[in-house]
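Q: What structure does this chain adopt?
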Amino acid sequence: MGTDQDRDTNNAANYGINATLRIRKHLPPYLFTGSDWDESDRVEFALANPPFETEPPGTVERVLTVTGSKTIRDDGGPQVVTCFLDGDPSTQYVAKIYDGAKYPLSDPYSSGRGYNDCMSYADRDYNIEAWAYRTMQPAIGGTFVPAYHGSWTFPAGK
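A:
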């Protein structure tokens, strides 16, 4: 069994330059609360507690190719990458990947114990941002906020 740091190094390859991910449309879950978890291995916890399942709105599958990383923090959270879709590098996109294994077990912004659940942190962040973009798009999408191309998901690599 490796340490969290070893696993982070190995998982980083999942979203490295030229990594390709088969993505499908996804509806974010509704608002929820986290759970209590008092263990120290967040990758093990993430694997044992996958994200909330929702019904996908369709079966359309696309291929996302990562071209770079915009994530500069080391304290966890969404991974921000530049990418293109379906082998066409002429249009570049920015994507956020909400991978619970990249989140801390405890909430860095909480003065108390917090949820201690990296998967709930990832789902919470994804949920809030996806619903915000969905509601802003009809009025100001592509003007005051970036254009939103929907929520997508992919299976985690083994």
